[in-house]
Amino acid sequence: MAAPICIDCNLERSLISIKPVKNRHEMMQYECPHCRNIFSLVVERAPLDFDVTFDRPALQANGQ
Predict the structure, then answer these.
(1) What residues contact 39, with CB distance under 8 A and at least 6 apart?
(2) What residues make up the domain containing 32?
């Protein structure tokens, strides 16, 4: 995905942060390098490209 363009300066903004939000979404914040205006965009989080596995078995509910 290309970075958004600042509507005031007509320059490409730089990604400055990515924060998780509700329901598997992320808020991405972009800043204009000239006027420092912040643009926030909420997008669906991309699925993982790999399987997550654990070395130890999960703990049982009864504490054993």
Answers:
(1) 4, 6, 13, 29, 30, 31, 32
(2) 14-44
